[in-house]
Amino acid sequence: MAKVFYTHAGCTLVALNPFQPVPDLYSLDVMKEYHCAPQPQESKPHIFIVAEEAYRNVQGQVEPVNQSLVVSGESGAGKTWTSRCLMKYYATVAASSSLMKSQDTVERIEKRVLDSNPIMEAFGNACTLRNSNSSRFGKYIQLQLNRSQLLVGASVQTYLLEKTRVAGQPANERNFHIFYQAKDCFDETVEAMVHLGINAEKQGHIFRILAGLLQLGNVTFCSAMDESQPYFMHRCASLLCVPVEELQTCLRVRTLRAGKQSALFKPCSLADCSVRRDCLAKVVYAQLFEWLVTFINDSICADNSTWCNFIGLLDVYGFECFQFNNLEQLCINYANEKLQQHFVAHYLKAQQEEYVSEGLEWSFVKYQDNQGCLDLIEGIPIGVFSLLNEECLLNRASDAKQFRVRLEKELSDNGSMSWDKFSKQPHFTVAHYAGKVSYQIEGMMEKNKDPVPPELIHLLQKSENPLLHQLFADRDPVGQGTRGLRQVVTVVSKFKNSLENLMKILHSTTPHYTRCIKPNTDCRPLTFKKEEFHTALWTDFQLDTVSSRSW
Ligand SMILES: Nc1ncnc2c1ncn2[C@@H]1O[C@H](COP(=O)(O)OP(=O)(O)OP(=O)(O)O)[C@@H](O)[C@H]1O
Predict the structure, then answer these.
(1) Residue 83 forms part of a structural domain
(2) Of 51, 197, 184, the residue nearest 115 (C-alpha)
(3) Hey, which of 7, 19, 71, 322 would you mutate to test ligand 1's pocket, going by the most ligand atoms within 8 Å of its Cβ?
(4) What's the pLDDT at 487?
């Protein structure tokens, strides 16, 4: 493999993952070289060109002044690595330390921004079959710059943490890194926590909660009233600082309430007990992750009066197509469709501007518009998300077959939707820009409702672990609306909302696209497999657009 890892393709930078550290590729001297180059675009293709271009746009106050660096690619392609490089670049070239009076305070801000990485990765990344450090959430990091374009703060927005991983992992994959770091490689995470202001006491609370979740994972149910696992149940209760009898009851007995009548107690089936145990683990971990993100933001976010522009870094999960796909993949692929649409619109605009500036004659190229696919997913009132939400609001047991019939009735006119007539499983197939994906319907409604039994919330509110108590203190266990109606804020509604906000930000900024490519599927260093590279490029890059340049 020739040691060339970057190239330009139109307005996109293509980054090839070397799968091993390349000496001096990102050194301080290289940063300086790009930062000081009179025309960085004329230097060798590099991620620092993208970084510098965005930075100079802010310096030049070129409208729109705020910038977005969109880093995409499949799992293991190098998005997180690239985002880290970009953050380090700005933490170096936009460092405000030398200008400020209090050196100490300022050094801390750049360091704190960088320190958010090991924490987020410890809690949000895991070893998967495709990447030993796979981000199991999407993130948008906003680097805040003051009038002199110096880095004064940052904020992080996260998307769709894969919380199911805490309750169970696919074969040969692992839980989130933090559960293993508790044994070793702990220092970096703890050091970063200290820098961000998570003191020893808070760390103690966090680690007790994590240890409690590990013990919870050992709890199994043999018969509804079986007491054969008291050890793990006791350990878990003691670490989560909740009464053991109540924990036990919560996991085993459902409380039914109808209006003002007194409660009825119904023992859960063994399968339901396990569902409740997993639900407890997921809700605690997700809430803890959210708390950490808020804490990090409080620690690194600059006061509104001190910053005026930003450079945003978007690192989102790439397009996913597995043997079995469900709601998570639908959301991820929907996000990719949105970004693809944004990319194509921006690409064509940039292309036209280039032709005009060079005085070339041009005519509109026909390109694959993915609006049909987006309508299929997000259409109101008739789209997969709307119908799914409608189904979840009906207070009845979910029926996958019935939902499939409904989808076919309502959406068969949309050319992006199809069904495999030979498949026995209720499913639907969506023709995405990057290929067709079949989604299983079984379990989709439950995932969308993501219900948490109120008993579990009541229990957590009683925790004597101050952090755990705080995580649930304001949560309404039954999710009652103002008129006593149950408010179901579904997973897809929340996701669609946060994505809409993200798209608004992207539309208001100057975008810069970097497409990371995995040059071989086995993550082998310096190995370039042409066929695999082409597959990645075709699915990932949407060559329709690129082919308009005839390269
Ligand atoms: N520029 C690079 N130089 C050296 N190694 C790299 C580079 N980019 C990526 N890698 C290696 O590839 C691995 C996977 O990269 P990374 O975690 O950034 O992928 P990703 O696209 O963020 O994946 P996921 O979507 O699963 O989070 C890294 O852990 C690192 O070992």
Answers:
(1) yes
(2) 197
(3) 19
(4) 61
Annotated catalytic residue 83: no
Catalytic status, residue 259 = no
| Residue 27 assigned to a binding site | no
Q: In which domain, by residue range, is 45 found? A: 6-174+308-320+510-547
Cβ distance 313 to 86 under 8 Å? Answer: yes
Judge whether 38 lies within some domain: yes
**Token digits of residue 433:** 């820009």
Our answer on whether the CB atom of 77 is closer than 6 Å to any ligand 1 atom is: yes
The verdict on whether 76 is a catalytic residue reads yes
243-262 pLDDT, tens digit each:
999 999 999 999 887 777 77
Active site residue 75: yes
Using CA atoms, how far apart are residues 283 and 163, in angstroms rounded to an integer?
Answer: 8
426 lines ligand 1 (CB under 6 A): no
Task: Provide the 3-class DSSP secondary structure of residue 319.
Answer: coil
User: How many domains are contained in the chain?
Assistant: 1
* Residue 453 in contact with ligand 1 by CB distance below 6 A: no
Q: Is 519 in the pocket of ligand 1 (CB under 6 A)?
A: no
DSSP-derived letter for residue 477 is T
Give the helix ranges, DSSP H, for 125-225. Answer: 178-181, 187-196, 200-218
Does the pLDDT at position 462 exceed 90? yes
Q: Residue 132 C-alpha to ligand 1 middle, in angstroms?
A: 9
For residue 153 and ligand 1, the question of a CB distance below 6 A is answered with no
For residues 34 and 95, is the Cβ–Cβ distance under 8 A? no
Q: Is the pLDDT of residue 507 over 60?
A: yes
Quick: pLDDT tens for 324-362: 999 999 999 999 999 999 998 888 777 777 777 788 776
Any domain includes 226: no
Whether 372 maps to a domain, the answer reads: no
- 224-247: pLDDT as tens digits: 455 556 899 999 999 999 999 999
* Domain CATH for 151: 3.40.850.10
